[in-house]
């Protein structure tokens, strides 16, 4: 059977409205770009298996006629856009150093950073939470992991959020600017790695360099995994914190519950914030062979996009999925927002720690915080969704 093609999207629909309309047409539907999209959590988990699909490599670049330059280099060398055996070689050296012990060690610094950022903006009138708090916390945390000197933080933060635009569809002028900043970020990371190599340091980057050498990564691959880490860890956490606080502000009873007993509710608030209006739209893959999935024929080479936005409101998993409820007990053990399979997020523990410290500090220092404009809009059903500004006042 051929997949039903969905109706054109109405201008006024949110992504969740679109998902409701599209999923009513079948389990596997072709969107207006021809991508085969699915909606359930079960299908998302099945479709990332290497037996069925593979990660996109440089295909998106080829479609745009790009065959060289910094963005092409990133797609060609990053673990995120690679398949076995290169994927395992590239992920291995980071996977081992990037988990719970690192986060435990960073905790006190993370707490200090979150509190300092909030104290700085407390009772200061209207601010944009996304950039002033979320964006700063996310980029500075990754910079802290990498040992970026304090004086370089503003410059590195600016480069990160500019370079990240190179990964989505933008106007030629924005893409050119983003590519220049990606080049600058690349050389910054190259210098940082060189400094660590010559100093023989025993910190995160020093250990990584040793492991990368043992796994046989060449110079460009060694650098690109760090650039991937910087990009993958910034936009996502900035959006996740902004979306979570926005939901808490719009559901005031839930905010008050969290502030009244933060220790008890903090993990629930984080998981629900990551679920309700998530910062990831879909996991984009390529059919590894001709498939028949749920009775639908999917030719080899087709793009497949299991929608994370939809899986996180799968009624077979979550009771009353359209309700924002920090006390819900039906979150799966592996939160779907961090993906599934071989490419599942490496930074989950770090992202959760950032969210925990930021929300705890907000409850303690700024419990009377209010939105002062329309809540931020999360849009897009590609990989990372865009998050608009969030005007608010942080009030003690
Ligand atoms: C709330 C925040 C975050 C969310 C929702 C998130 C989500 C994801 C998802 C869905 C993937 C898999 C993409 C795919 O399969 O196509 C991924 C991969 C990845 N994430 Fe995260 N992420 C977050 C934060 C972070 C942080 C803080 C870091 C590190 C500093 C990080 C590093 C990575 C890396 C390196 C990969 C690539 C893994 C691979 O390809 O093997 N992420 N992330």
Structure description:
This protein has 396 residues and is α+β, with helices and mostly antiparallel strands. The chain has a single domain, classed as Orthogonal Bundle (Cytochrome p450). 52% of the residues lie in helices and 8% in strands. It contains 16 helices and twelve strands. The strands form four sheets. It has a five-stranded mixed sheet. A three-stranded antiparallel sheet has the order 4-12-9. It has a two-stranded antiparallel sheet with strand order 6-7. The mean pLDDT is 94. The site of protoporphyrin IX containing FE has 23 residues, from helix 11, helix 12 and helix 16.
Q: What would you call the structural class? A: alpha+beta
Radius of gyration, whole Å? 21 Å
Strand content: 5-15%
Strand order of the largest sheet: 1-2-8-5-3
Mean pLDDT over the residues:
94
Choose one word for the global shape.
Answer: globular
CATH architecture verdict: Orthogonal Bundle
| Low-confidence regions | none
Name the CATH homologous superfamily. Cytochrome P450
| Ligands, deduplicated | protoporphyrin IX containing FE
Major sheet size, sense and barrel closure: 5 strands, mixed
| CATH topology description | Cytochrome p450
The number of domains is: 1
- Straight-line distance between termini: 59 Å
CATH class membership: Mainly Alpha
Helix content: 40-55%
Order of helices and strands: HEEHEHHHHEHHHHHHHHEEEEHHEEEE
